[in-house]
Amino acid sequence: MGEKERGFGFFYLCNMKHLIAPSILSADFANLQRDVEMLNKSEADWFHLDVMDGVFVPNISFGFPIIKAIKKHAKKPLDVHLMIVNPDNYLQAFKDAGANNLSVHYEACPHLHRTVHAIRDLGMKAGVAINPHTPVNFLQDIITDIDLVCMMSVNPGFGGQKFIDATFQKVKYLKQLIKTKKSKAMIEVDGGVDLKNASLLLKNGADVLVAGNTVFGSKNPVETIAQLKKGG
Ligand code: DX5
Ligand code: ZN
Hints:
This protein is an alpha/beta fold. The chain has one domain (3-229): Alpha-Beta Barrel (TIM Barrel), CATH 3.20.20. It is 35% helix and 18% strand. An 8-stranded parallel sheet has the order 1-8-7-6-5-4-3-2. Strand 7 (186-190), helix 8 (198-204) and strand 8 (208-211) form a beta-alpha-beta unit. The longest helix is centred in the last third of the chain and has 14 residues, at 167-180. The protein is globular and about 40 Å long. D-xylitol-5-phosphate (DX5) is lined by residues 23, 25-26, 48, 50, 81, 154, 156-161, 190-193, 210-214. Residues 23, 48, 50, 81, 190, 210 line the site of zinc ion.
């Protein structure tokens, strides 16, 4: 199965089976290839890569060399989540590094319409991430221009944080907005996702679950991914 079929095409073909995107932030960076191969063999659908600049969020993660190294071994699409200011300066570089989906933060983009179209023009799927305090309504004039909404269910910057319960309701609102606007955007929930909250998130309309600590902190990550794929 090619990259395309495993991503958006596959999703629509199978009519609404949700996707799992393990977050590499919680992987063992000294054994990155091992962890990438583990995800290749698992039921994971995407690799979620968190890029942090120490300005938009109070943490610094990794950049192009790591993304390129992952791309060399990954057999599934790279879902890159930019937590950086001025993402417009680096769109081409993320494309060159191997990003398939590129999400920018609503709060970091004064010219969001231009940014998401530039991402699409480069041949990537365009995503918009929103912080927990950002209302879903703020997406109403961009929702038909994007492929993905990355809804933060923690304040971005760190893995292993506690899930914010208000997200359940926000996912419902967003699903409604997507239907009303006849948008094809997928809803991705990112932060504190675990085997307990997964089923309600899916019931409320989530299409993609990101999970870092839940996957990599478990005894058997392949099995944990399989459980998330079953719906938690
Ligand atoms: C947080 C990141 C998340 C994070 C998820 O800023 O965007 O993708 O890695 O990790 P967990 O699932 O551990 O909350
Ligand atoms: Zn993320």
